[in-house]
Amino acid sequence: MQFVMSNRRAGKFQDAEKTASRAALAEALTVLPATAHIRSESRPADDLARRSVILEGTPAEMIALDAATSSDVIVEPLILHEREGALSMFKHARVPLAGLMRAAPAGAAPLEFHVRGGGAPLAQATVILFLRRLDGEVMREEARTGADGVAAFPSNLAFQPLAAIVKPYAGFWARWAQVSGQKTTVVCSKLPGNRRLDWWHHASGISSFAPDAGAGIRVGVIDTGLGPHPHLQGTDHGAFILGIHDPDGGADADVHGTHVAGTIAGRPGEVLVHGGIAPGVELHTARVFPPGEGAANIDIADAIDSLSRAGADLINLSLGAPVKSEVVQDAVQDAAERGTLCLCAAANSFEFVHFPAALPETAAVSAAGKLGTAPEDSVSGGQLPDQPELFGLDGFYFARFSCFGPEIDAIAPGVGIIAPVPARHGLAAPYAALDGTSMATPVACGVLARVLAEDASYLAMPRNIFRSDLARHRLREICRTIGLAAIYEGHGMPRS
Amino acid sequence: MADYVIAVKRTMREELPQNWQSQLEDIDGLTLLSPPARERVLVSASPDALRHLDAQLGRYLRIEPLIRHQTSR
């Protein structure tokens, strides 16, 4: 780690005091531990001014130096200040776990989050607490609310609580929360209900709910699995995990796959909740994610094979890695030659497009939001970009997390998308709002399925490379600009 | 030892020796981690075993590390 040593200036009004303070620092630097070394130094010509030194060493060395030096010398971690604090905290998956639960001192009062929504405690909400350790590193800790709506974290004086993301399991918007003492009460807003269509349907040119839209098109979803959920039906191809196929292992190991599939093919029946973009498609699903882990290239390729061989016209891949897999590319090419077009999420790290989206054979989808579609205090409401050129026409904006580049084919709604999540925790048919290019890709996929279902020339084609080429061509044809540069929106937003 | 994915090249399916998977099993320092399959297998291999595999069957196969993909939520 890097830390800073500096002579103290505050309260030193006499030249002699200032000189003594500088001398104390000079003396401290002569007794540095052997393994610590100076990285850089500001040493003003004025002998009375502050001298600061940046050192490389271990936390233990820093603490030992602090204890051994006089009060005229300040020893503290090198603290970096960033402009985009909220953005760096949003990428919480990259923030290391603090391990508070393991290091909890006995008897200390816990830090509690009381999560409520709709006038009642919210059980099964995930609270992600961000903390700053004494050495300056930001870490995270996660807990889940019980039946009383309370999530508790052990207090630890070595960590300073910063802020938290509170994510209800279903029915309510996720939101940021400021930590206010030992007990923080967080009230989450209810998701909009009593409607079949929402802003992402309207943005896609859909003005009325048609249960048969997309009929005749086979859509594959390769993800964390499917359901159970009463509003989703499909052919389950099972799980492909580290080269082993489990035909009975296709249930959702997370919530992601169900949400993605539901965005395309949710069939709420008579229930007045958000419907899929193309509820009439024939849905085929495969799970490639083990619980809590990433999906392996071999399994993605095997799943593409399985769905493509089953006659999938489109495959939705809301997943990615920063490095290219030739094995996956090979399967994508093979699928294209069987008439299957793969639509892939660009990824969420606001950088270059990840793979397989960046492959020339796939269609890459970035994510858009729309002003006024999510509460301002919700996580979804905070996905606005901080650069003016990322705002487009009609209130659309490029989501602050979305990857971009020349590989982008289309942009689709991917902020505050409400879709089914697995029926768990006593909830019969839960829906949740999620953000991501993962959510944008199934919107684009569903719109394309609706269009292809009405295209007699496409439906009459044999399953070969020309069929997948035509699907890609149709995707580009139905895109309309939302006023962003091509590296952000590609050909624009697909509309049916 | 590290994990690798071995996949048959699309253009080499016809030319690939039928006993390619048993040839894999005969390579010292290489262990099959997934059941024998038609086109792809997961193996654990030492650097020497990998060189041996590449020399013996490399023209028919794609060999790459196990790459983990994440959801784009």
TrEMBL record, chain A:
<dbReference type="InterPro" id="IPR015500">
    <property type="entry name" value="Peptidase_S8_subtilisin-rel"/>
</dbReference>
<feature type="active site" description="Charge relay system">
    <location>
        <position position="223"/>
    </location>
</feature>
<dbReference type="InterPro" id="IPR000209">
    <property type="entry name" value="Peptidase_S8/S53_dom"/>
</dbReference>
<keyword id="KW-0378">Hydrolase</keyword>
<keyword id="KW-0720">Serine protease</keyword>
<dbReference type="GO" id="GO:0006508">
    <property type="term" value="P:proteolysis"/>
</dbReference>
<feature type="active site" description="Charge relay system">
    <location>
        <position position="256"/>
    </location>
</feature>
<feature type="domain" description="Peptidase S8/S53">
    <location>
        <begin position="214"/>
        <end position="457"/>
    </location>
</feature>
<dbReference type="InterPro" id="IPR022398">
    <property type="entry name" value="Peptidase_S8_His-AS"/>
</dbReference>
<dbReference type="InterPro" id="IPR023827">
    <property type="entry name" value="Peptidase_S8_Asp-AS"/>
</dbReference>
<dbReference type="InterPro" id="IPR023828">
    <property type="entry name" value="Peptidase_S8_Ser-AS"/>
</dbReference>
<keyword id="KW-0645">Protease</keyword>
<feature type="active site" description="Charge relay system">
    <location>
        <position position="438"/>
    </location>
</feature>
<protein>
    <submittedName>
        <fullName>Subtilisin Savinase</fullName>
        <ecNumber>3.4.21.62</ecNumber>
    </submittedName>
</protein>
<dbReference type="InterPro" id="IPR050131">
    <property type="entry name" value="Peptidase_S8_subtilisin-like"/>
</dbReference>
<dbReference type="GO" id="GO:0004252">
    <property type="term" value="F:serine-type endopeptidase activity"/>
</dbReference>
<dbReference type="InterPro" id="IPR036852">
    <property type="entry name" value="Peptidase_S8/S53_dom_sf"/>
</dbReference>
<comment type="similarity">
    <text>Belongs to the peptidase S8 family.</text>
</comment>
<dbReference type="Pfam" id="PF00082">
    <property type="entry name" value="Peptidase_S8"/>
</dbReference>
UniProtKB/TrEMBL annotation, chain B:
<protein>
    <submittedName>
        <fullName>Uncharacterized protein</fullName>
    </submittedName>
</protein>
